[in-house]
């Protein structure tokens, strides 16, 4: 079959895949430990065979969730800037980052094994995230809303620190710390 003959997935198959990805993301974000594939299928309202048809291994599901979350972060920077002032866009992006961190918590063992095996490009993800932060910082500096000397590495380190001490279920504490951190990015008067 040539590339022009490749069929698009049926609408129900595409819908099932999307549903599985959304449910897996939500379940992994709220699970204290890695959840079973069977539990994810049940939560998504599909049979386990449907789950395995889309994601033949736990690693393939984790990879898809991970890539989807990174995509949300990288495209999210531009989308937020299109509708919000830069400093507010950066603050909302911090919430997206928190969602990503929470999702990773439910798949840490699998991710660690995948990174060890070279199946997950951790360094590439870091570069993509720092680029997204730079987009937000550049817009904020240009608008005079963010200090000149703040770097993407500074933001990443601050976010990792915040979510290390205020991880789910401490959402209220995380919000408060993110607001304090965001306020500290304002240029001096």
Automatic annotation (TrEMBL):
Residues 36-55 bind DNA. GO terms for molecular function: DNA-binding transcription factor activity; transcription cis-regulatory region binding. Residues 14-73 form the HTH tetR-type domain. InterPro entries: Homeodomain-like_sf, HTH-type_TetR-like_transc_reg, HTH_TetR, Tet_transcr_reg_TetR-rel_C_sf, TetR_SbtR-like_C. It comes from the Bacteria. The keyword Signal does not apply. Keywords: DNA-binding, Transcription, Transcription regulation. Pfam families: TetR_C_43, TetR_N. SUPFAM superfamilies: Homeodomain-like (SSF46689), Tetracyclin repressor-like, C-terminal domain (SSF48498). This is TetR/AcrR family transcriptional regulator. It comes from Amnibacterium setariae.
């Amino acid at each position: 079959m040539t590339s022009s003959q490749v069929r698009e997935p049926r609408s129900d198959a595409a819908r099932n895949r999307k549903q599985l990805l959304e449910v897996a993301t939500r379940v992994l974000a709220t699970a204290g430990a890695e959840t079973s594939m069977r539990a994810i299928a049940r939560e998504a309202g599909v049979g386990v065979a449907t789950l395995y048809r889309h994601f033949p291994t736990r690693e393939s599901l984790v990879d898809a969730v991970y890539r989807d979350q990174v995509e949300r972060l990288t495209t999210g920077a531009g989308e937020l800037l299109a509708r919000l002032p830069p400093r507010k866009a950066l603050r909302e992006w911090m919430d997206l980052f928190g969602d990503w961190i929470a999702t990773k918590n439910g798949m840490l063992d699998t991710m660690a094994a995948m990174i060890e095996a070279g199946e997950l490009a951790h360094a590439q993800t870091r570069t993509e995230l720092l680029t997204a932060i730079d987009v937000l910082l550049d817009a904020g500096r240009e608008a005079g809303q963010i200090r000149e000397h703040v770097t993407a590495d500074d933001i990443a380190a601050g976010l990792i620190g915040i979510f290390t001490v205020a991880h789910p279920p401490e959402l209220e504490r995380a919000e408060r710390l993110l607001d304090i951190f965001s306020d500290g990015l304002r240029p001096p008067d």
